[in-house]
Amino acid sequence: MNQRKLDHEVKTLQVQAAQFAKQTGQWIGMVENFNQALKEIGDVENWARSIEMDMRTIATALEYVYKGQLQSAPS
């Protein structure tokens, strides 16, 4: 009788362990996807920062050229 109870408990634990392993795998997948999404957000943020710096450089250069043209233009 005790052996049957033990066998039943072993089977139950095996099923629960398999379910836990499956769930853990799903959690790991979700965390990996989340980490990838965070990396992509960081990449976009860095790209936007780079574009912003380029645009400021261009705007400064255009402003410099425009002011130079105003100063050299005959009045």
Automatic annotation (TrEMBL):
UniProt catalytic activity: L-lysyl-[protein] + acetyl-CoA = N(6)-acetyl-L-lysyl-[protein] + CoA + H(+)
Cross-referenced InterPro entries: BLOC1S1
One Pfam family cited in the UniProt record for this chain: GCN5L1
Domain of life: Eukaryota
Cleavable signal peptide: none
GO biological-process terms attached to the record: endosomal transport
Function noted in UniProt: Acts as a protein acetyltransferase. Negatively regulates aerobic respiration through mitochondrial protein lysine-acetylation. May counteract the action of the deacetylase SIRT3 by acetylating and regulating proteins of the mitochondrial respiratory chain including ATP5F1A and NDUFA9. Acts as a regulator of mTORC2 signaling in response to hypotoxic stress by mediating acetylation of RICTOR, thereby protecting RICTOR against ubiquitination and subsequent degradation by the proteasome.
Protein name: Biogenesis of lysosome-related organelles complex 1 subunit 1
Species of origin: Myotis brandtii (Brandt's bat)
